[in-house]
Design goal:
Belongs to the HemG family. With 174 residues, the chain is α/β, with parallel strands linked by helices. It has helices spanning 13-27, 37-40, 64-77, 103-111, 133-145, 161-173; strands spanning 2-8, 31-36, 50-56, 81-88, 118-123, 125-127, 155-157. The strands form two sheets. The chain has a five-stranded parallel sheet. The longest helix is centred in the N-terminal third of the chain and has 15 residues, at 13-27. The chain starts with a strand and ends with a helix. 35% of the residues are buried.
């Protein structure tokens, strides 16, 4: 199996999750290419048997380039074994951590011509010390509004790595 894993990340948590997916797929005997959304534009999706895309949220949105990519390539994606996951801090909440209940996944499905076969939602990470002043201030305000962590000296990882493993295994078994 030739597997392509594409990621769209801002701070790196989606890449970390994709790296775990790559390891799981390789352990299942797949040949895996892990690339950015921009790098994927130069590849022929027809060369792959499986395609998995992971994308993060910033300020309530996936990057416009994600929609451009999936809408341009949805016909080819539909011919592959495929999956999509979104990474967002809202998913730290139990009532918003499934594809059916996560508002960002639901919005993606509404705006995308591509309707992936396998879906998942992962909670992300807040790394206040890594952010510039504007992002740190905005993210802190959003966290204050949603009763999340506001200590700007802290890093808060919400990702459930057991859930990542389970989805990686599910994708590899398709």
């Amino acid at each position: 199996m030739q597997t392509l894993i594409i990621y769209s990340t801002i701070d790196g948590q989606t890449l970390a999750i994709c790296q775990k997916m790559k390891t799981i797929a390789e352990q299942a005997g797949e040949q895996v290419a892990l690339v950015t959304l921009e790098q994927a534009e130069a590849l022929s999706l027809a060369d792959f048997d499986k395609v998995l895309i992971g994308a993060s949220i910033r300020y309530g949105k996936h990057r416009p380039e994600l929609y451009q990519f999936v809408n341009r390539h949805h016909a080819v994606l539909d011919t592959k074994i495929n999956g999509f996951f979104t990474v967002n801090v809202v998913a730290r909440k139990p009532l918003k951590n499934t594809p059916e209940t996560n508002p960002y996944m639901q919005k993606f499905l509404q705006l995308s011509l591509w309707q992936p076969q396998l879906l998942e939602v992962f909670a992300g990470k807040i790394d206040y010390p890594k952010y510039g002043f504007f992002d740190r201030t905005m993210i802190r305000f959003i966290m204050w509004m949603t009763k999340g962590p506001t200590d700007i000296t802290g890093t808060f990882e919400f990702t459930d790595w057991g859930k990542v493993d389970a989805f990686g295994n599910r994708f590899s078994q398709h």
